[in-house]
Amino acid sequence: MAAAAAAAAVYAGWIEPRRLVTVHRTLQLPRWPEALNGLRLGLLSDLHAGAPYANLPAIARAVERLNAEAPDVMLLLGDYIDAHPLWGGRIAPEAIARELGALTSPLGTFAVLGNHDWKQAGDRMWTALQNAGIEVLENRVLHTGDIYVAGLADLRRRRPDLPGTLAGVPAGAPVVLLAHDPDVFPYVPDRIALTLSGHTHAGQVAIPVLRRLAIPSRYGERYARGHVVEDGRHLYITSGLGTSGLPLRLFAPPEVVVLELVASATT
């Protein structure tokens, strides 16, 4: 028993946080037009740059992996820098943004900021991303190709404004919503084709029930990870790249995500 516990600790503290997996999912969405079947989204979230294992080479590796997948649009879901008292601020926002600026896709790269970004770097992270050619969306929506990409302000540090964000979007238009914290999802209207979030890290040590206390959500395990469907509305949560707090990962390796969207008449 002691040997097994020691092996698990080594794996969670040294091996898994250094891994990188590519997750491929096809999502059938009732509010997605058939004309856009096969559109592919590249997702990257929760780098927590400066934390153990979350250095610039690790970010560059994730960027290279996602570029190799050649998605139609790149979507970044916040917490690019870490705000931990010990390792927060180890890497400058500008250096992080330069690595992320290497992402390429036909429809561009769009981002929202997370609670760690605001706590550690404030609008310096925003400015760095913009200067790297990445559109930062805070309660704002942009039209790219045949879709609308909307981004909400962080729920914990700012003031999300869903009605204001969507005010300029034509009725029936396909909308993908970026929201760092999935706790906004119960308030997302059904006109949104897909909501994308990070923040939870799947609890980092992703053992069901036991992870509940580690998931930073008022809803417990409800929005821990993956594809969630509620009342016909669709949410996808990525477990992200880095770590927050203890530099541990178990059953939740660092990931980049590629989602293929197709129309469906069902939920």
Give your account of this protein's structure.
By secondary structure, this protein is of the alpha/beta class. 21% of the residues lie in helices and 23% in strands. It has a six-stranded mixed sheet, covered by helices on one side. The longest helix has 14 residues, at 2-15.
List the helices and strands and how they pair.
Blueprint: H1 2-15, E1 21-29, E2 39-44, H2 56-69, E3 73-76, H3 93-100, E4 109-111, H4 115-120, H5 123-131, E5 135-136, E6 140-144, E7 147-151, H6 162-166, E8 175-178, E9 194-197, E10 226-230, E11 233-237, E12 255-263
Parallel strand pairs: 1-12, 2-3, 3-4, 4-5, 7-8, 8-9, 9-11
Antiparallel strand pairs: 2-12, 6-7, 10-11
Write out key terms for the chains shown.
single chain; 267 residues; alpha/beta; six-stranded mixed sheet; 6 helices; 12 strands; globular
- Estimated helix fraction: 10-25%
H-E string? HEEHEHEHHEEEHEEEEE
**Multimerization state:** single chain
Taking the sheet with the most strands, its summary is: 6 strands, mixed
Strand order, biggest sheet?
1-12-2-3-4-5
Shape field? globular
- Which percent band covers the strand fraction? 15-25%
The total strand number stands at: 12
Sheet/helix structural class: alpha/beta
Low-confidence stretches: none
Distance between the termini: 44 Å
- Taking all Cα atoms into account, the compactness measure Rg is 18 Å
Please give the count of helices: 6
